[in-house]
Amino acid sequence: MTFRPRRTGARRWAAALSAGLLLSLSAACSGSDAVLLTNSLLAGSAAVNPPVMRAIDGIPGWKRTGPPQRFDKEGLYGHIDGGAEIVLQYGFRELSVFAFRPAASQGQAVKEVGVEIYRMRSAEAAFGLYSTKLEGQETAWPGVKTDHWVSQGQANLVKGEYLVNILAPECTDREIGEFAAALERKVPGRGAKRPPGMACLPAQGMVPGSGRYIRGPLAARNESPLLEAPFWGFEPGPGSDERAGPTEAFSAKYGAAPAVSKLVVVKFKEEPPPAALAANVLAVFKEYLEDVRFEGGLIEGRNAAGRWFLFQAKGAAAALDLGDPDREAALARAGSALSRASR
Questions:
Q1: Alpha-carbon distance 265 to 158, whole Å?
Q2: CB 123, CB 85: distance < 8 Å
Q3: What is the distance between the alpha carbons of residues 295 and 264, in angstroms, rounded to a whole number?
Q4: pLDDT tens digits, 113-159
Q5: 11 to each of 18, 92, 114, 253, 266, how far by Cα in Å?
């Protein structure tokens, strides 16, 4: 059989966010009182209700059209239908949605910009959610100091514990980039903060900007169907109040098109029994791959295109190299990652 990794959920959940933002933008610009934040919700100390979640003003050339909408965990499902669960699995706190129009349209067609600001549980959580959208080599914009990308009709940035999604389908890339640069300066924090585990990914050969922090079963499933099985520990345990299990993973792409592969480093909370882990991984490999074999702690297989899929484990860490045309290079890369992860 041909092993075809699923299209990542990066753009999928981004599309869900954009759909929710378009609905909110339409409601906010129409003056609908039903969706606007009341004065009572705007009250409170800055520590509980920071200024960035209350209102943002002073974007050159743009004027906010109304007070922000606020969403908690329960309200998130109604705002981004189909995309809320992955946000919650990374540790969501609250969302604020704004709408902007040009300060002076001068008779031109009125453009609208929608902004979603997600306040996450931590800066690492914000980076993790941001990273699920990354494919590598995204377009950056001069003047935006933190991690970000700008594409047609949309931009994304992460700073401190905030993830910012900008939706502007009627705007040029230049307008979106300049808007993002001005907005970034108003968001608290000191840039993006990557989890320490990202450092275990070897830098040599990595596709720039492709590093991801994987938390929770949805992010794991979107990364690769090989990570869907419960034994990995991405699912929360029985009776847990968390939406994600204790296992974390870190991934990046390597090589150059058309020979691009992916390395995933899995870090368990505790070292799993080696024999049980190997048996589980072997079963998954046999489900998706051909020519699977297990020898000397290495599990390997190939897809119909001849690409290599390798698994190794060391202590509480494991490495999966997915789809590499060069077996020896994949082994060296995975070995380097495991050495870093087990320090």
A1: 23
A2: no
A3: 20
A4: 999 999 999 999 999 999 999 999 999 999 999 999 999 999 999 99
A5: 10, 19, 18, 17, 23
